[in-house]
Amino acid sequence: MEDERGDPLGVRIGAREIYDEVVGLRGDVQRLGQQGENVDETLEDHESRIRGLESERGKFVLPVALITAVATVVAAGLTVARLAG
């Protein structure tokens, strides 16, 4: 099979083949757009979960710090009482 220039390895691509490829690419782009929307929704969901976990963790920071401070003061008082003794 030769093209009009006589090249035996030539390939002729018609308008129909180009149209079919463009239609296929359009479908691919639409699917990618939908996947992008799904990723955005998942990201928002994960972000809200992480923020919830961070706020829960913050509830325990102050009580733990207070308990640690009180325990340190008690331990220091016991040490002073033992040394004064």
Question: What does the model show?
Answer:
The chain is mainly α and about 80 residues long. The protein has one helix at about 15-85. It is rod-shaped and about 110 Å long. About 0% of the residues are buried.
Q: How many strands appear in the DSSP assignment?
A: 0
Largest sheet: none
Helix content: over 70%
Which class do the helix and strand fractions yield?
Answer: mainly alpha
Number of helical segments with 4 or more residues: 1
Strand content: under 5%
Enumerate the spans where pLDDT stays under 50 for 5 or more consecutive residues: none
Name the descriptors.
85 residues, 1 helix
Helix-strand blueprint:
Elements: H1 15-84
Nutshell version of this structure?
With 85 residues, the chain is mostly helical. The chain is 82% helix and 0% strand.
